[in-house]
């Protein structure tokens, strides 16, 4: 290999891969979309902690489907919203919080896949952990806004009252 060729290769390895402007734009757009989903999840967590359940539901499509942590299915915004205790004593209710660990946005469709961990705490977002696990979510972008179309939660650990529940067969 000539010195000139070696110098070019060394220069390319230092600079890293060269991206075309279109690739750079797609990467920037994907990063912005991932961030929008992360921000939406944080906002939903705040609404859950504050007991603002109508706001919580505003992040779901009307036909949202979930599989609860212990395996029970729930279909539709109304059914999902009913899981949140809007009238009872919140001091003993579980307050669920999700922490995003990854988001992948489709370059072809208005879809994204989120993964993370979740925890149900007694009485408040700062209360003792009763149940925890992992989750995944499908997001769809409609009218410029990311919404949750489906979520799957899997309970993996518990403590205290969280261990009294039974998993669906």
Quick structural overview:
The protein is α+β, with helices and mostly antiparallel strands and 169 residues long.
Structural summary, described in words:
The protein is α+β, with helices and mostly antiparallel strands and 169 residues long. It has a single domain, classed as Roll (Nuclear Transport Factor 2, Chain: A). 32% of the residues lie in helices and 37% in strands. It contains four helices and six strands, in the order αααββαββββ. It has helices at residues 3-15, 21-50, 53-57, 77-82, and strands at residues 60-67, 73-75, 94-105, 111-122, 129-142, 145-158. The chain has a six-stranded mixed β-sheet with strand order 2-1-6-5-4-3.
Could you name the CATH class?
Alpha Beta
Radius of gyration: 21 Å
Total helix count? 4
- Could you say which overall geometry the principal axes of the C-alpha atoms support? elongated
**Low-confidence segments:** 5-13
Task: Please tally the β strands and state the result.
Answer: 6
């Amino acid at each position: 290999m000539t010195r000139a060729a070696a110098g070019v290769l060394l220069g390319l390895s230092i600079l890293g891969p060269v991206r075309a402007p279109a690739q750079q734009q797609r990467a920037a757009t994907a990063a912005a979309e991932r961030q929008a989903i992360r921000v939406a999840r944080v906002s939903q967590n705040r609404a859950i902690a504050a007991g603002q359940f109508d706001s919580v539901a505003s992040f779901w499509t009307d036909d949202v489907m979930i599989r609860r942590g212990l395996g029970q299915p729930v279909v539709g915004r109304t059914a999902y919203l009913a899981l949140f205790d809007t009238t009872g004593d919140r001091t003993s209710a579980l307050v669920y919080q999700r922490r995003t660990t990854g988001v992948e946005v489709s370059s072809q469709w208005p879809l994204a896949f989120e993964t993370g961990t979740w925890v149900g705490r007694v009485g408040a977002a700062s209360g003792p952990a009763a149940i925890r696990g992992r989750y995944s979510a499908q997001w769809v972008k409609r009218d410029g806004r990311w919404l949750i179309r489906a979520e799957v939660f899997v309970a993996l650990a518990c403590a205290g009252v969280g261990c009294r529940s039974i998993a669906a067969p």
